[in-house]
Amino acid sequence: MAALPEEPAEVVAVKPDPEAGTPPQPPAAPPAAAAAAPAAPPAAAVEVEAAGNGGEAAPPKQAAPGPAASPAALDRQTLVAVLQFLRRSNLRESEEILRREARLLGDDLGAAALSPAGAGLLGAPGGDADSAGGEALLSRVTAAATIAIGGSVATVASSSPGVAAVAAVPPGKVGGGIVVEDQPDVSAVLSAYNQQGDPTLYEEYYSGLKHFIECSLDCHRAELSQLFYPLFVHMYLELVYNQHESEAKSFFERFHGDQECYYQDDLRVLSSLTKKEHMKGNETMLDFRTSKFVLRISRDSYQLLKRHLQEKQNNQIWNIVQEHLYIDIFDGMPRSKQQIDAMVGSLAGEAKREANKAKVFFGLLKEPEFDVPLDDEDEEGENEEGKPKKKKPKKDSVGSKSKKQDPNAPPQNRIPLPELKDSDKLDKVMNMKEAARRVRLGPECLPSICFYTFLNAYQGLTAVDITDDSSMIVGGFADSTVRVWSVTPKKLRSVKTAADLSLIDKESDDVLERIMDEKTASELKILYGHSGPVYGTSFSPDRNYLLSCSEDGTVRLWSLQTFTCLVGYKGHNYPVWDTQFSPYGYYFVSGGHDRVARLWATDHYQPLRIFAGHLADVTCTRFHPNSNYIATGSADRTIRLWDVLNGNCVRIFTGHKGPIHSLAFSPNGRFLATGATDGRVLLWDIGHGLMVGELKGHTDTIYALRFSRDGEILASGSMDNTVRLWDAVKAFEDLETDDFTTATGHINLPENSQDLLLGTYMTKSTPVVHLHFTRRNLLLAAGAYSSQ
Hints:
Elements: E1 12-13, E2 56-57, H1 71-88, H2 92-102, H3 106-114, H4 116-119, H5 131-147, E3 153-160, E4 163-169, H6 186-191, H7 202-215, H8 218-224, H9 228-241, H10 245-255, H11 264-271, H12 276-279, H13 283-290, E5 293-298, H14 299-312, H15 315-324, E6 325-330, H16 337-343, H17 422-436, E7 449-454, E8 461-466, E9 472-477, E10 482-486, E11 492-495, H18 498-501, H19 511-514, E12 516-522, E13 524-527, E14 534-539, E15 545-550, E16 554-559, E17 564-570, E18 576-581, E19 587-592, E20 596-601, E21 609-612, E22 618-623, E23 629-634, E24 638-643, E25 649-654, E26 660-665, E27 671-676, E28 680-685, E29 690-696, E30 702-707, E31 713-718, E32 722-727, H20 728-732, H21 739-744, H22 753-756, E33 757-762, E34 770-773, E35 779-784
């Protein structure tokens, strides 16, 4: 930038903090001016922060002599006009702050007013601004500030009293590291596309960057190629918003084929946005605008990009990089194409590294002090002490290791859990008897699989669950019914009517048997109440209750004693896609089309927690075995782990290329397996927040995942009509979870997923929608027969 025409000027590039992910402003960027609000209190009139990070100076350039005002002279006029307006408005304090920040002394102000560049502004030689001229300039300044990227704060810095370099800093970041809250609303979101770039040059800008990236060294090309997709989306939306429809269409047709295949669904939605009116109220549009697209790039690649954009003075791309992208810079070797491909694909890029730094208590809670000790892997242990009447001391050896507290476990009382009832204690004993006969699975000993096929499924089977003791199976159907079957010879009985109950001897020993009505006992009970397809079902651990969620926006709690609806929980405004009971009962979680998951307690009609953060539908939910955390999978192609205690998101996992439809925690609580429409199963280390494995083999959406009771085998069920068994022990051994991997995301996934595949089992024509391991490690699978 040149200063006053008579003297050579120094070009100053202001370099914002690279760790904040903000690329620097090129020297010839259009200035963003700070406008003063006359009605504001003096201290808050103008918000300006000097960039204290010291810029890199480019070689000095000779300014062209002549009377025409150069950009720097105009900047100076703008600054002088604002200062004089503040002085006239008697906002002395703000004037002082601005002058100090711009390093302009009082004498400089007078000199600027009298200089040839400033002469056109001011009337009388005494330095008093001519009212009309001052107002005209001020209105121009205000307009410039409005047009400047929405919500940004202007940063004014200079290296000497003659030169001022102005750089736009993105919302939420102010030069010296001071953070300003960024809360976009819809109108601000759209106005941020008010750019003044030449629409005919957008294709040239994009193809220029594309050529630069494709010609860069191999080690940088993979990382810089991540820029293509977010820049393409924002440049297209900018053209549409500014009503350059033919240019937008041409831009889309020329470059949409270059994007990665896993963005095709998003591009299909984008192609339907062809007019400015379409953008208002469009969810995809708001997603791209309100969430910064996260790119993880090494410092070397970032410097290369920065130099290129500064040399080319490519302001349009620069503005987008600053406004809409979050560049997470790490020190070290650039990542390879394979490492990047493993982690990208979600709606908002990768997760920021700090998103996965919080401590997670992934260990299991200490089991109760029973005379019959419990297995370490049992997910339904309680944290209350109690001694059952039936004692089996001969099984003392079983699970004695669980008496030691897991160092990674949360404190026992971190969240309040329900007390253990006598019936729960008896169930624990039964569980231990079964566990003693449990088959130890492994590559040499695969489980038997029992498949439940639903025939003539009433307009479609949409959800299945099986009780922990494998005695009942429930189906949710598209005709809005919930149907419960007994899968043992024991029929389903409900409690007698009130009139019949009054005749019973309440003191008798077998009163619990007498209250059940044998006349109405049957293998199947149908529950009516929902007014739309039932998308999720879940039995309570004690088998007394059943949850179901539906397209009608409600979650219903049913009694399995009376087979009637006890409560309808109304909180979601749109379809609820999934619900699940906590392994300890009492709490349950639901997730739906409104993009949030809700934590409920059975005795509260309002949710206890609302987990907001996903950018699309929450499609599946799962409790951690210790009940302190909840995992949610979403159509935004991310998995999030939430802390039940405070509602915080403690992990964000990216890597799937399609909506997530299944989640499963390993029995020891350390790992999470996830399945999606991309046909891949991804394995995650919860403690380190890292992807540790990828299982390829399925050719369609994976709707069911389940670990065996001891965690040796992972079973996956898919719409491709197969059940596959994977060696979980081998998948999780020798993991690379050193500090460097955690810090940079240089994950190296072994290409041996076929070595981990232990077996593939085809059904005739039945997509697999649910899997369940019995207490003895028999695998139960379920799905509805499909005739096509």
